[in-house]
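1st attempt posting a full record on here, be nice pls
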Amino acid sequence: MKLASLAAVIALGLSTSACVIIDADDVHHDYAQTRGVSDSLERVLGARVDGGDLVIRVSSNGCTRQEDFSVESQRRDGLTAFSFIRKRPDNCRALVAEGVELRYRLDDFGVQRGGQIRVRNPLVRP
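the predicted structure (as tokens):
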């Protein structure tokens, strides 16, 4: 009985979560070059799906906010690719070693639960 309950919980979790792929070394992929943003993609410290949100972690000097970024998304064959571009530099003087997390509602980009997500930005490992 307990095994069946555990299997049901795992199946529910898998059906409501999304897969996040980070293109750690794929900065110069055709998509980025055609958009002309290959050099302006923000380096991310991590990305994950939390409920219905895509959460990215970026570096910060203490003043980084979600409004400082533009987000481009492209959907194709069940995969939504995201690119995060910093519009405004963080010129504050506090070093936030772990960076900050920014949340983006997947519904706002037409991504359904369980959809595949790719973050085009390069991954920086601390």
